[in-house]
Fold this protein.
Amino acid sequence: MKNEGTKSAVLMSEKLHIENKTLFIDLRENEGGQFIQIAELSNDRRSTVVIPFTGSAQFLEALGRVAGAGLAGA
């Protein structure tokens, strides 16, 4: 996972525009390994979530369940 002050290389990046938000989904790598970084830009604010690549499958499964529950309730 990302260490403070450690430079990371971007291996792949996707950019999404959803409503008034811009999301950047990056696959990054540093000396600690690979990780996914999700950054949200909205109204001049930036929020970031970092997920170790080893947890990416669990994260995607959980995201699928949450998204499915949202669609079922709509």
